Each structure stands twice: as C-alpha cells, then as structure tokens.
C-alpha cells in the first residue's frame, strides 16, 4: 500500500461515462446524489442565517484563476461544494432572514427542479422544447387571467394562437420591465408613411419623423432601478426616466404626474410610458393605479405596472382591492421567484392586448421562422430554461387558496410586527405596512420626544447620529448571522425630508413566527448597548436632553 491518492483521468471513455445516466441505485453518482440531498436538507433545517465568517476569508477558497489541466472526481467536487459553498451560503429560507425579497421555497420545488434540469429544454423554439411551449403559454394565460379576468372564450381563442402572445417569460423582473417598455417604445413610434418604424430605423430617425425632442418614461421616485436600466438600454437615456414626487405614504402624487406630463408635452417630449408600482421595493406601497390609468389614457401613453412584488396580492380576496386599476394596465410584470415561491430566475410580463407583443416580433430563418409556434419570436432572451414548469407546479399544487393563505399571512404578520414595534419604547416605526414590507429604526423614546419638537437643524443632527447607530446595529446583526434585516434610506416628511437610515423588513416567509420577530427586536435592543456604539449613544442622549431642555416652559431661549 502506497497510500497514493487515486486521480481522475481524461479519456474518451471517461467523457462518455460522465454523460451516461447511472444504472445502479448504489452507483457512485447515486450515492453522491443522496449525500448532497441529506446535506442540503440539514442546511435548510438550520435557523441560522449565515456562518460568522468574513467574506475575505471565503474568497481564499475561490482564488485559483487557472482552469485545471487534469480532471477531478465528481465526489471530490461535490465535497468541495458542500464544504466551501453550501456551508458559507446565506440561508435565505431561514425564518429569521426577513431582510430581502427572497424566502423559503416549497420543498417540492427541489425534486421537481430535477425534471427541468434533466430534460434541459430550450424554450426559444419548439424543436428544443415541444410540450414546454404550450405549458409556458398556459402559465402566461393563467397569470393573464389573474390580472385581467377575461372569460374562458378569450383564453380559448388567444392562449395557444401562434400568431399572438399573452406575455413573455423572462429571467426576472428586470428583463420583464425591459420587455414591457421595449413594446411601449416600438408602439409609440410605429411605421407610418415613409417611416418604417423605430424597430427598423432607430430612435434618432423616429424622433425626427414624429417631431419629438425625446421620449420619456414616468415613474414615482420609489421606482425600481431596473427602469433606469431599461431607459438606458432602449436608447432613451437615463435622464428620460422622469421621477415623480410621492406623497407621505410613498405613493405617486397623481397631480404631480399629470403636471409632469403636461410639461413634457410642452417640451415636445413624448410620454412613451407611465409606470405604476404595485409593491415598492423599499416600503411595499401601491400606487393609485386607477388614477394613473386615466392619466396614461389622456396622454396616449403605454400604462405599465411593475407588480414584481405585489402582483400575487391578487390571490387574496381580502387585499386584492389594494391593486385596483391594475386590470387597466397595458402590461404587468410579475416576479415568480418572489411571491409565487419558485426558485431564482423566473419572471414574466403579461399584455392586456394579445397583439401588443407583435411590436417586438423578430425572426431568423435558421431558428425562429415567421408563422411558427416558437416563443422566442417575442422574447428579449433567446435560449431559456423551462421555468414555466415550476411556476405551473406551484399554481397547481398551492392553487389560488394556498397562495391566498400565504399572502394574507404575510400581510397580517407585517401588521403584527408593526404593532410590536409601536409597543417598544426603543423603536420607531417609519413606514407602516400596506402589503408585507415595513421600515423602522432604533430610536429611544426620549429621542422620539426630542424629534417631535426639534427644528430642522436639531432634527438633522439627531437623525445623523441615529443613522450611524442604525447602520451599526444592522451591520453587526448581519455579521453575527442569527438573524437578518436589511437597511435602506428614506426621506420622511416629518423630519424635513432628511435622509434617514432605517431597517427594512420583508415578511413573506410562512415559517417566520411572532416569537422570532420578538427575538430580532431583542437582539437589536441588546446591540444598542454594544461597546462599539456607546460613544454615539451618549452623544445622542446629550443632544436629545438639550432639545427637550430648550423647549421646557420657563427655559430662556438663546
């Protein structure tokens, strides 16, 4: 026995072997598969959010930049992934991970995902997808009906008609929003007379032909950053994604929206699209979609609703009224990997009019021929996996009733957490939940009293100090890894619109309990006593005392 480690060899036989399905249940690959499944199950059952290990240390495990010359065994790579990747991943399914729009998945998604991966269908063309193509059309039809509630005759006519598309499947909300605005741009500058359309001649000639100085997309200041990307990619320029002021509840101000449209009209800038938000990323608020639809119609603009987060609220009979007016949208974005609870990498956009998507139709003789059933003719992305299989599985296994329970529980949980925060003297609720997102911060009762009577300069000083404390607590809690809330920056009107750093909480995980939420608050309260932040706490306390003393009756003003 030499003890020499056995090494893998590259050969024709070895390459053939790795592409061959193992026959025996006790084969090496079968054992590896079972080991991975056990390891992942153990990881997912843990409630810790992340191991307390600095990212710079993790980087050392991935520092090799040269592709290996010699192969290694699958078992060796599997162990590497389990030790170095899985062990150092973020446990987004943990019930105490409540900081981002990523949640636990229904466990059935794991085995069902094997079907999608094993079949490796490419949805760009029926020659590489077959049954996956009508399935994707069915999923688009299901979500279309959720939004627009057309009758059965409508879907029997349009859902599988190869000449039309009720929507487009995408890798996520960013591409879905881009697809919707791509359709809006092409329909805003169609072929006419000697002009062959913007899709053929480009933006410069389109603007010149139609006598415009530019084309704009309007959205509230709470709009998702993907809309800026879309304005850039579509050639409009980021300056032409026009932000509109919001009210105190982070919803677009419709008077300001209409005034902005009139201003652009006077400047000969075409209002190409107006975007409503159904579930803002930072605060979870819903724009007044009904009123926005009327303004879009007045200015002949495409009305798009970014419902990447809040769209599934339509499942809830109790809360669907919050999205009133969404049915008037020309297009609506959903992110399936958010509140439809499918794995990452699935979004879609649906169009009210089945003919709208023809504005971006494209063909190629070798793959997407005109008149074919190929879904790639109206999608921005070419090769795509069959993620519709997982969406359809969720819609069938959970069904409307199941999704309604998940949505209702999330909103109820957010309202409960808001009540818990209001009952705590050391915390301040910044935005109350409309859906299942809320923001708050560490702010002792005495400081809240001082802020209530402070002038703008005093409020700025107090809030600057609070910002440093909130950032410290959030960062330290994240590094400890037991729980996670994210942070963002808002400009509350009650604090003279000064930028305030706040905790942001997303309550979509059905496994999150009231006890877990109480533990998160307790850990944050304990962190306020950490020696690393005590100087700031002392300064905050002194500033609050000074403000309160200045406003006491009988105290002489300077």
From TrEMBL:
Taxonomy, superkingdom: Bacteria
Record-given protein name: Glutamate decarboxylase
Single GO term (MF): pyridoxal phosphate binding
Any one annotated GO CC term: cytoplasm
Keywords assigned: Decarboxylase, Lyase, Pyridoxal phosphate
Gene name for this UniProt entry: ddc
SUPFAM superfamilies linked to this entry: PLP-dependent transferases (SSF53383)
Entry-linked NCBIfam families: NOD_PanD_pyr (TIGR03799)
Family per similarity comment: Belongs to the group II decarboxylase family.
The EC number(s) this enzyme carries: 4.1.1.86
N6-(pyridoxal phosphate)lysine: modified positions: 338
Cofactor dependence: pyridoxal 5'-phosphate
A GO biological process held by the record: carboxylic acid metabolic process
């Amino acid at each position: 026995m030499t003890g020499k480690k056995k090494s893998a060899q590259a050969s024709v036989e070895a390459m053939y072997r790795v592409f061959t399905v193992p026959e025996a249940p006790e084969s090496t690959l079968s054992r590896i598969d079972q080991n991975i499944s056990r390891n992942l199950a153990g990881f997912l059952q843990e409630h810790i959010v992340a191991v307390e290990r600095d990212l710079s240390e993790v980087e050392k495990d991935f520092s090799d930049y040269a592709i290996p010359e010699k192969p290694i065994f699958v078992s060796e790579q599997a162990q590497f992934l389990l030790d170095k990747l899985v062990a150092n991943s973020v446990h987004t399914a943990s019930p105490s991970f409540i900081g981002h729009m990523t949640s636990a998945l229904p466990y059935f998604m794991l085995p069902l995902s094997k079907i999608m991966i094993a079949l490796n269908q490419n949805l760009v063309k029926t020659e590489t997808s077959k049954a996956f193509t009508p399935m994707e059309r069915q999923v688009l039809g299901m979500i279309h009906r959720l939004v627009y509630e057309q009758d059965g005759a409508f879907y029997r006519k349009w859902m599988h008609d190869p000449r039309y598309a009720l929507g487009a499947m995408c890798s996520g909300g960013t591409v879905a929003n881009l697809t919707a605005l791509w359709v809006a741009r092409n329909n805003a500058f169609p072929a006419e007379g000697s002009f062959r359309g913007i899709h053929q001649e480009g933006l410069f000639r389109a603007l010149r032909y139609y006598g415009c100085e530019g084309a704009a997309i309007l959205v509230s200041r709470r709009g998702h950053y993907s809309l800026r990307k879309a304005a850039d990619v579509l050639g409009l320029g980021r300056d032409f994604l026009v932000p509109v002021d919001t009210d105190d509840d982070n919803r677009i101000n419709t008077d300001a929206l209409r005034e902005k449209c009139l201003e652009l009209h006077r400047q000969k800038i075409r209002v190409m699209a107006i975007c409503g938000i159904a579930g803002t990323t930072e605060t979870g608020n819903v724009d007044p979609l009904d009123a926005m639809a009327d303004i879009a119609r007045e200015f002949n603009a495409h009305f798009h609703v970014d419902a990447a987060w809040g769209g599934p609220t339509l499942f809830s009979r109790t809360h669907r009224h919050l999205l009133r007016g969404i049915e008037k949208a020309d297009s609506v974005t959903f992110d399936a990997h958010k509140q439809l609870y499918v794995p990452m990498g699935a979004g879609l956009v649906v169009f009210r009019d089945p003919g709208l998507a023809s504005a971006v139709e494209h063909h190629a003789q070798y793959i997407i021929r005109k008149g074919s059933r190929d879904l790639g003719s109206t999608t921005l992305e070419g090769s795509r996996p069959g993620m519709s299989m997982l969406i359809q599985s969720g819609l069938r296994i959970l069904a409307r009733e199941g999704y309604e329970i998940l949505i209702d529980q999330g909103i109820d949980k957010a309202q409960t957490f808001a009540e818990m925060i209001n009952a705590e003297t050391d915390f301040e609720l910044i935005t109350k939940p409309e859906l299942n997102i809320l923001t708050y911060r560490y702010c002792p009762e005495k400081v809240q009293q001082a802020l209530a009577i402070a002038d703008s300069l005093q409020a700025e000083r107090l809030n600057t100090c609070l910002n440093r404390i909130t950032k410290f607590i959030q960062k330290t809690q994240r590094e400890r890894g037991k729980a996670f809330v994210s942070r963002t920056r808002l400009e509350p009107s009650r604090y003279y619109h000064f930028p305030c750093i706040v905790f942001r909480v997303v309550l979509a995980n059905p496994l999150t309990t009231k006890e877990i939420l109480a533990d998160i608050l307790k850990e944050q309260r304990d962190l306020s006593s950490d020696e690393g932040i005590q100087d700031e706490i002392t300064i905050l306390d002194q500033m609050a005392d000074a403000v309160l003393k200045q406003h006491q009756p009988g105290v002489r003003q300077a």
